[in-house]
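Re: that backbone. Tokens:
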């Protein structure tokens, strides 16, 4: 698959997990594509941790408002009825359990649902930002990520990078399939028709449990 096709496959499938009226926080990068693929009739309320609820689509080039940016510094818009507030209020919303779904990327995730998504060895990093709060406070945590990084598995038996949070990931969606974190391990629930179970397992360090009713990834 081409890079853009991979991103579309992942974002389109993640969008199917969202329900009308959900309050959703999107991580930077691939997760920001998810609203483009919402099923007809489903409207979600997008929250950005730097202080806005009611986030709209990315503005057209030349129409950016420097006062409207997301947590990653990207230009955004505000829909009618949107509200802006300070960081303390924003994290009160997150920590208070008012975010239904948090969609994040990952450097590593393991079979216990532990996530590492903020420190790349050898690179300067300002810290994990609000990811820890989003993992602990959201009702459901979905990872929207490519299955491997330069051919190396990202779904591991145990994370080796510094953790963002332990045991908080509920679902992983990659270009290869849909996986659910359970007390018994990672269950492969859906598989993309371009891949076999053997290929998915070969690209995954953790041992996958294949669901008896394994479905084709939509």
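Recovered sequence:
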């Amino acid at each position: 698959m081409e890079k853009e096709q991979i991103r579309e496959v992942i974002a389109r499938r993640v969008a199917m997990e969202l329900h009308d009226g959900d309050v959703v926080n999107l991580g930077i990068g691939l997760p920001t594509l998810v609203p483009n693929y919402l099923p007809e009739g489903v409207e979600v309320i997008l929250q950005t941790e730097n202080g806005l609820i009611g986030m709209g689509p990315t503005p057209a080039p030349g129409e950016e408002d420097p006062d409207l940016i997301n947590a990653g510094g990207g230009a955004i818009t505000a829909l009618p009825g949107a509200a802006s507030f300070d960081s303390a209020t924003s994290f009160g919303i997150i920590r208070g359990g008012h975010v239904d779904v948090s969609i994040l990327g990952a450097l590593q995730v393991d079979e216990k649902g532990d996530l590492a998504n903020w420190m790349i060895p050898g690179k300067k990093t300002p810290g994990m930002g609000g990811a820890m709060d989003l993992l602990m406070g959201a009702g459901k945590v979905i990872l929207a990520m490519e299955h491997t990084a330069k051919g190396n598995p990202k779904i591991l038996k145990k994370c080796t990078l510094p953790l963002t949070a332990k045991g908080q990931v509920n679902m992983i969606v990659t270009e290869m399939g849909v996986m659910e974190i359970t007390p018994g391990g990672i269950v492969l629930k859906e598989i993309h028709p371009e891949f076999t179970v053997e290929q998915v397992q070969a690209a995954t360090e953790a041992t996958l449990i294949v669901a008896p009713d394994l479905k084709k990834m939509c």
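The domain at 1-214 is CATH 3.40.1080.10 (Glutaconate Coenzyme A-transferase). The chain has a mean pLDDT of 94.
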